Amino acid sequence: MAAERCWVVIPAAGVGQRFGGDFPKQYTKLRGRSLLDHCLATFLSWPTTYKIVVALSASDRQFLESDFATHPKIVKVEGGAERVNSVLNALAYIDLQADDGDWVMVHDAARPMLQTRDIDVLWRARSQYRAAILARPISDTIKRSNRAGVIDRTVSREGLWGAQTPQMAKVEDLCSALRAGLQAGHNITDEASALEAQGLEVGLVEGPAYNIKVTLPDDLHLANLWLERQ
Ligand SMILES: Nc1ccn([C@@H]2O[C@H](COP(=O)(O)OP(=O)(O)OP(=O)(O)O)[C@@H](O)[C@H]2O)c(=O)n1
Ligand SMILES: C[C@](O)(CO)[C@H](O)COP(=O)(O)O
């Protein structure tokens, strides 16, 4: 039986509005390397990566400075208006090349701390689930606010997880789920939500606390603190 292939999609066409700054946050340096390049380096060092499809803004000129701008395993596609559109554009490329049964992992360029050992944990879950994601059980007490920014009520955290990435599925499943979700007008903020909407079982695989998404400036400080402990 041929070795199972895993494609990788890195959505990296965002503007980083919440992060601020003069350029898109995926090009912010963390220990001298851009957030995006941290992700690319990790997946390039994972032996099962088949190809990496990076979705970039049409106006992106900074990827040319990436350490991996001309890497043979990396393909560039144009991103879209929302993250889901960027992912779907990358999948459209993969769909033309994928063999039946190929897997794909989608990982945010804004999550630079992922390690190959974390990818291995998710990859091993394919024996148990047809789709799975890294996620973290919620440990804080959860509050829902009212319009005045006051606690409206406490929400049980029982069974609540914070979704991370990578999110893994069969190429054909993810392509059809995202297309169906968009067609139905769903607000798709991660791959799992589209798969769930199609009735697919998506496994939850515990991811590391350090696999944070750099969304706000403070998140970059947190990432640096984690790296100091490595
Ligand atoms: N149209 C978009 C929007 C987002 N992303 C990517 O999706 C990932 C997660 O999105 P997020 O953290 O929200 O990044 P931004 O959209 O850039 O942030 P903001 O919402 O603050 O603008 C990022 O790697 C981002 O580059 C993308 O490829 N295409
Ligand atoms: C995909 C994701 O990282 C899972 O938590 C998250 O949904 C991305 O959200 P964003 O607003 O596009 O950063």
UniProtKB/TrEMBL annotation:
CDD domains: CDP-ME_synthetase
The keyword Metal-binding belongs to this UniProt entry's keyword annotation: no
Pfam families listed in its UniProt record: IspD
Signal peptide from the UniProt entry: none
The enzyme's E.C. designation: 2.7.7.60
Pathway stated in the Swiss-Prot or TrEMBL entry: Isoprenoid biosynthesis; isopentenyl diphosphate biosynthesis via DXP pathway; isopentenyl diphosphate from 1-deoxy-D-xylulose 5-phosphate: step 2/6
Site positions for Positions MEP for the nucleophilic attack: 157, 213
SUPFAM superfamilies: Nucleotide-diphospho-sugar transferases
GO BP terms: isopentenyl diphosphate biosynthetic process, methylerythritol 4-phosphate pathway
Catalytic activities: 2-C-methyl-D-erythritol 4-phosphate + CTP + H(+) = 4-CDP-2-C-methyl-D-erythritol + diphosphate
UniProt entry keywords in alphabetical sequence: Isoprene biosynthesis, Nucleotidyltransferase, Transferase
Single annotated GO MF: 2-C-methyl-D-erythritol 4-phosphate cytidylyltransferase activity
Site (Transition state stabilizer): 18, 25
PROSITE patterns linked to this entry: ISPD (PS01295)
Stored NCBIfam families: ispD (TIGR00453)
Family annotation (HAMAP family): IspD
Family: Belongs to the IspD/TarI cytidylyltransferase family. IspD subfamily.
Function according to Swiss-Prot or TrEMBL: Catalyzes the formation of 4-diphosphocytidyl-2-C-methyl-D-erythritol from CTP and 2-C-methyl-D-erythritol 4-phosphate (MEP).
Protein name, as recorded: 2-C-methyl-D-erythritol 4-phosphate cytidylyltransferase
Organism: Aequoribacter fuscus
Taxonomic placement: Bacteria, Pseudomonadati, Pseudomonadota, Gammaproteobacteria, Cellvibrionales
Gene symbol of the encoding locus: ispD
